[in-house]
Structures are given as C-alpha cells and as structure tokens.
Amino acid sequence: MSDRLAVRKTYKLYLNGAFPRSESGRTYEVTDARGGFLANAARASRKDARDAVVAARGAFEKWSGATAYNRGQVLYRVAEVLEGRHAQFCEEVAAGEGLSSSRARAAVDAAIDRWVWYAGWTDKLGAVLGGANPVAGPYFDFSLPEPTGVVAVLAPQRSSLLGLVSVLAPVLAGGNTAVVVTSRDRPLPAVTLGEVLATSDVPGGVVNLLTGDAGEIGPWLAEHDDVDAIDLTGAPADRAMELERLAAGSIKRVVRPPAEEPDWSADPGLSRLTPFLETKTVWHPMGL
Amino acid sequence: MTHVLDPDAPAAANPPRREPPAPYRDVTRSDAAFRAFLHGLPGVDQVGAESRVAVLGTRSIKTTAKAWAIDTAISMVDLTTLEGADTPGKVRSLAAKARRPDPGDPTTPPVAAVCVYGDLAGIAKEALAGTGISVAAVATAFPSGRASRAVKLADVRDAVANGADEIDMVIDRGAFLAGRYLDVYDEIVAVKDACGDAHLKVILETGELVTLDNVRRASWLAMLAGGDFIKTSTGKISPAATLPVCLVMLEAVRDFRAATGRQVGVKPAGGIRTTKDAIKHLVLVNEVAGPDWLSPDWFRFGASSLLNDLLLQRQKLRTGHYSGPDHVSVD
Predict the structure, then answer these.
(1) Where are the alpha helices (DSSP H) in chain A?
(2) For chain A, which residues make up each domain, given as ranges?
(3) What is the ipTM of this complex?
C-alpha cells in the first residue's frame, strides 16, 4: 500500500483545441467494468455541442483545403503520438471494457494500426473514388471526392478506443471536421485521444470530443442546421429512428446504426469513408 | 491656420461661442475654466466599473425576455459598412438587408439605420426611401479626424446634401489628449451647425482616450457641445466598444439628463459580435441609464456581423433547433 494520496482526476472536454469544462458545469463518475471509481468526466450539454459545431465549421476550410498528402502526414503523426501513449491506452481500455491485459493490448494495437491505415487513404481516395469519365462530347470530364463538411459522430458505446478510431479516422481522412460524442460509460480512451490530438499537428477544432450522453446531445446535433452529416453508430437503439427523422429536416447524410455493435477488428474497407464524401464532377471543354 | 479649401471664408472669425445648456453656461468661458470643469468631474473607479459590468454580465436572460431582447437589439442596429472597397451594389444589398433582415421570417423587425461613408449616403437614401430607416454617414475625416476644420465641415455638408439623416463625427483626439478641450468643443458645435436637421453622433474613439476618466470627460464635452448621441468608437481601433466604457458613458448621459433635462443617446460600436454581448449591453442600459434609453431613439449598436448572430439566435428560438451561417445572408 502506497503512502501517496490518490490523484483523483476530473477530465474536461476537448473543444476547439482547448480543454474547457462543460458550459453546464456538470460532471459524472466513470467506473471500471466492475463498478470501481476511475475518474470524473465532464458531462457535455447542448451548448457545448453548439460551440463544438462552431469550432468544427471554423476549422473546416483549413482542414479540407490542406493537400491530401499533408492530411496523411498529420494523421500519421497522430498515430506516432498514440504509440507513445500505448501503455496508458492499454490500462484505460482494460479497466473500462473489462478486458485482460493481452486482449486490451491487442485492441490498442488494432486501433493504432487502423489509424495508420486511414492516414494512408487520404491521398488515394481521389484515384479510387474519382477519375476521368468517358462522355459523348468534346469534354474532358472527371469526378473527384470532396469532404461533406462538419460531421457529428455518436461513437460506439462498447468499443471505447478501437471503435472510436474506426468511426473518427475515416471522417478526418476524407477532409471533414468532426464533433464526437464519446461512449458514455467508457469515455477515458477518448479523453486521452483528445490529449494526443492536442499534442500532435491536427489543427484545433478539427476534432471536438464531448464526453457525455449521446441520447441527450444527439438530438441537438441531428437537428443542427450547420451539421452536414451524422453517424448514429453509438445512438441508443430505441432513439435511432427519431434521430434520423430529426436529421432529415436539414437533409443531412445519415449513417444508420448497426443492429448490434459490430466486431471492429474486421477490415472496414471503404464503407466508412464514402458516406462522408461528395462527388464533384467537372466538365471541361476540350479545344483543339 | 489657413484654409486652402475656401480662401474666401471668414478666417475663423471667432463667432461668439455657443453656450452649453444650463446649469453649465459658464464652463466654456475660458480654456482654464473648461479644463477645471472637466477635470473636476468625479473620477472613475476602474476596478469598480469592471466588477459592476462583470456582475451585470451574469444576468440570465431567457425565453420571452430573450426574444424581446433580440428583437429590441435588431431594431437598434446601425447596419454598418465602412470599407474602402464599398460599392453602390454593396450599399444597396445592405439596405435590402436593413429593411428585411431575415427574408424567411417577415416578423423580424427592420434595423434602425444604415451607416456608410458620406459619398454613398445618396445611394443608401434612395434604397431606403419610404422605409423609416435612417441613413447615417460618417464624416469629419473619419476615422482619424486629422484634417483642417474647413475640410471636416465640407465633409459634413456634403454628407447632409447627399441625404444623410444622421452624421457620425469623430472628435479631434489629438486636441483632446493635448488638453485643448475648447478646440474640441468648438469643433463639435461647428459640426452640429453644419448638420442642420441631421442628428449628430459624436464618436469619442475611446480606444485612444486611454483612461475611463478621459471617457467621462469626453462624454460630457460632447454632450455640452450639443451632440445628440455619444458613440464609443470608429470600429477601426482596438479595443473598440467595451462594457466598462459603455458603463461610464451611460452614467454620463444619465447624469447629464438629471442636470440639464436633455436626453442624449449612446451608441457602442465595434467589437460587438454576438447576441450575448448585445444582451449584456441592454442589461447595462436598463440598470445604469434606465428603461428610458431602451429604444432605438436612444441606444444603438454600430455593427455588421452582430445582426447575423441575432438572426441565428432568433431562428433558434423560433424553430427550437440550432441554425447555421448558411441560413442568413452574407454581408
């Protein structure tokens, strides 16, 4: 038994590159899989979500305007910093998800590999999803994928790191900015990811992490006129339909939640990249 | 002093100085007397002013009170464009926005005025004909005020001739800071005469006055000289309108009316961008000057981006969900 007093942590939100408390001042207790106290986390309110959308919109021009190569470099740098925090992530995933240390390690490895994999996609999307179209006329006609805009992500509730990375990284790789509502009961890996993002080269506002209840904040994001797409993966099962209906008011792209949280270790393919990309087609007259 | 502009003008033939209203008739009898009066005004407790606005800034204004505040603030906006790149087209589109700030919601009130440079006042006047929205023009070598008096007065007459209903003049901060208060006073009086029927707003440019004591002195000076409004800033200098400055100016207009019976308006300008800021100002007006000032006749916001934020908040109250910048017009 150590003589030291325990340092009880109260984490904050990651919003616009800074770590503010929730505007509401609320916090909640985060426990491990057996119910023991882990830390306090900020419980984000609708106003935090509103501020996060403003931040994400502000960051969109720079992030979407960066070259695909540069975005890849920035995301790869995030993976480097993730690797440096490997041990901390293992601890948090093991405690939060109740995994053995070897399975937690495997989940963290997979999460970092997934991040690197998506970092590699940034400058290949154009070639794979776009290209020159054969048209019947004197035009050079080509299509290219462009980011959708500000994407609200309700992160998976169970897989706190691998699941989070699997939904967040594809949004960023395409050039979108994100407002993420983390797993309610297992938010600590997301909090640490925020610290990683803050100390890597991702511009402030590109990722905003709100710890709290997706059932509370989700409707505000779904209805928000300045959110272009919403990923409902972590939405409460009985509210998904309602959220989809709210999102229709502003014609958002919606990714429906799976019936059951999938096995995130499976190869995702392009299934999570394409929903947040718009195809722009250009017709260029050809002279002689 | 030579005036190349109008060599035949009576070379500042020192007309008898216009007296300020009672009971301050004799304070402008000499430079020394005026300085003694202005420096004899009670000093401003800066720490006290800051803590007062901080406390008032925490007032929670919600639901119906918020809806009222937003509509009141919209009706108080002087929608402003003061750029070198202003074109007639931009002024016309601003005028259209002034008449119908939110085309999607006809219950939105129009703004109080459109504020432009003097040469574009005619375009604004034409675009706003019959709407009741005033045309305000900045004059007197705005924003620096560094020109001879003849040039400044010509600037004012030109703007009035173009149809401006309100003139926003800048005071000569150089003369004020050098302690030549009577020069500043005489200039405001001369500009007021040149305005004719147009209302005169006197810009103190508080960001250059350094202290709150100076803000109080300049406020009194401008009110004694006949200004109909006192305005914080040009918007070209940072800091522009801050809450403590506004507090001091509101105290000044309150005290001035108590002493002379004449009511003067206040216009903070520059740096007010959010609905929250605007509501803080309205709380300040109500608590410091009183509800008599809560009308576009006596309180204005000099702003451009503020209007869009007010409209977004108004849409949020109406629809129940957050709106976005795609749902208001770009100025």
Answers:
(1) 46-65, 68-84, 86-97, 101-121, 125-129, 162-173, 188-198, 214-223, 240-248
(2) 27-285
(3) 0.87
